[in-house]
Amino acid sequence: MVSKRFVAKRLLLLGPVLFGVATVVFAILHLSPGDPAVAIAGQRASQEFIEQVRTDLGLNDPLWQQYVRFLQDTATLDFGQSYQVRRGSDVSDILADRLPITIELAILGQAAGLLFGLPLGILSAVKQDTLTDHFSRVGALAGISIPIYWSGPLLILLFAQILGVLPTSGRLGSTYFIDSTTGFILVDTLLAGDMAAFQSAARHLLMPVVVLGVYSMAFISRMMRSSMLEVVRQDYMRTARAKGQGAKTTIMKHGLRNAFIPVITIIGIQFGSMLGGSVLTETVFEINGIGTLLVSAINQSDYPVVQATVLVFAFMYTIVNLLVDITYSILDPRIDQ
Amino acid sequence: MPSTDSRVPSEPLLERTLALVVAAARWAAVGGVVGVAVSLALLTIWSPRAATDTAFALGALVLGFGVTAWSTAVGLGRTIEGMKDRLEVSSGWTEAGAREAFFVLSWVGAGWVVAAAASSILLVV
Q: Which keywords accompany this UniProt record (chain B) (predicted)?
């Protein structure tokens, strides 16, 4: 059982994290070149019109006043309206449309990483210094080292251009029309009962998920191997074996739970990389998630969208870490004492 | 400077809180001086409005970075320490050290933004 004090302490940290991230984003946007008033009015607009836009947006106020106003709005979850990306729309509506797409991608990527990374790490530890171990370690090193902007186009070249078995971009074939119920394309196609559309969505998601999953898998397998090796050397493992328990049973019954403790804490940090990776993955595979939203908002100096998107990233990252911490404290109750 | 590590049980809570407040005030004052200095320095190249805005943005950057890194060190410090040990890439980075460093940075940033805002009021408004 997790103590309320532990959860409350973790929840309290959410405030400083979001405040800090909001402040950094605000500062960076105002230090970077580019004038949102010019972006909105257009390069050929008259100086009077640009000035009018600037006044309307409050950009003529001193920066500290804009900062105070921004913090007040953010505290009440009022992210304002988009300047450019979807001009005049509420930023929260835009985020609500795009967020499920990125979450679906991150969840599938993390699931793929766990599904393959955990067994690979265990196998690598159990068969230490064998050919299997060497292959697994080299594979993990390659997986961590290969950047998404390289592996993505490589997969597109191989599976879409050369072999022609997978689509290059998007989330669904152009012949399918599915109403967005949850925003998660796999769930929506299933809810619509359209299996052909489901297959199309799955084929579209395969490459992006592999790209995200490989990095996650490499990291998890490396951690799992290291953790497992430590656990198998513990006295209780030797005792269990000495009592006549088989190697497999000892590992599954005693080793796995303990070896999993440090790995689960890493998953939270991993999720952060996953979100960062989603920006690149969505760009490479032309998926309209929150990652591509961020890129276009930065390109168009759409301050409210950039600020809200980064805050949402930070919020998700912190919440996932909170969940991971709670899981950790369930597996090892000593942590919250 | 007193340790910001809550697990250090050596001092009573009141004394520890007081020491932290004094340390925070000292670093905020340092930040205040930096904020005024940067605002004045930028005045030599830009208009008062641009100079104080830029000084404020720089201070906000320091404040935001300090607060984010401090809260990350508090929340994930032990995980990061453990991860570095396991991956055998430990570089001597510790949670307590990081907390103290970012405590200083946060309060310097806080003093800086307040001073830059005050400079803006004096020079622009």
A: Membrane, Transmembrane, Transmembrane helix
Is-above-0.90 flag for pTM?
no
Token pair for residue A67?
Answer: 């900062």
Last residue of a domain, one of A91, A114, A129: A91
Chain A contact set for B64 (CB, 8 A): 19-27
Q: Which two tokens stand for residue A209?
A: 């998920």
In this predicted model, which residue has the larger pLDDT, A248 or B85? A248
Q: Do A31 and B83 touch (CB under 8 A)?
A: no
Who wins on pLDDT, A332 or B48? B48
Residue A246 and residue A137 share a domain: yes
Distance from CA of A160 to the nearest CA of B (A): 36
CB distance A261 to A325 below 8 Å: no
Verify that A56 and A26 share a domain, yes or no.
yes
CA distance linking residue A308 with residue A285, whole number of Å: 23
What is the Cα–Cα distance from A201 to A223, expressed in whole angstroms?
32
Structure tokens at B54: 């830029």
Q: Does the structure show a pLDDT above 80 at B2?
A: no
- Asked if pLDDT for residue A274 goes beyond 90, the answer is no
Q: Which domain holds residue A128?
A: 96-172+210-335
Q: Which two tokens stand for residue A318?
A: 């912190």
**B87 contact residues in A (CB cutoff 8 A):** 222-223, 226
> B47, B58, B65, B71: which to substitute to probe chain A, counting the most A Cβ within 10 Å?
B71
Residue A11 lies in a domain: no
Residues A62 and A136 in one domain: no
State how far the alpha carbon of A304 is from the alpha carbons of A15, A17, A31, B34, in Å.
20, 19, 15, 30
Q: Which residue has the tokens 């995980």?
A: B79
Residue A10, domain member (yes or no): no
**b/e per residue B22-42 (b: at least 16 CB within 10 A):** ebbeebbeebbebbbebbeeb
Query: The domain containing residue B106 runs over which residues?
Result: 23-86+95-124
Look at residue B44 in the predicted model and tell me its pLDDT.
92
CA distance B69 to chain A (A): 8
Range 15-54 of B in CB contact (< 8 A) with A: 49, 52-54
A256 located within any domain: yes
- How many CB atoms neighbour CB A200 within 10 A? 22
Retrieve residue B125's tokens.
């408004």
